[in-house]
Design a protein that fits this description.
Elements: E1 2-4, E2 7-9, H1 16-20, E3 30-34, E4 37-39, E5 54-59
Parallel strand pairs: 1-5
Antiparallel strand pairs: 1-2, 3-4, 3-5
Length: 64
């Protein structure tokens, strides 16, 4: 199980890119932290999620 923004999901074995493809997140407008470390967008397709990982995904919102 992988914890994503506090919620346990059965996505171990998938890459970050594969997981994001199943969500409404816009990869251009988010930042992903895995186990306390920022993951560069260029690494989403090769970063495989492991059982016990913790992801925090934050969206950037424009406005003024």
């Amino acid at each position: 199980m992988v914890k994503v923004n506090g919620m346990e999901l059965d996505i171990a074995g998938k890459t970050i890119a594969e997981y994001l493809a199943t969500t409404d997140f816009d990869p251009k407008r988010i930042a992903v932290e895995r186990n306390g470390d920022i993951v560069f967008k260029s690494k989403y397709a090769v970063t495989v999620l492991k059982d016990g990982d913790s992801l925090e995904i934050v969206s950037f919102v424009g406005g003024g």
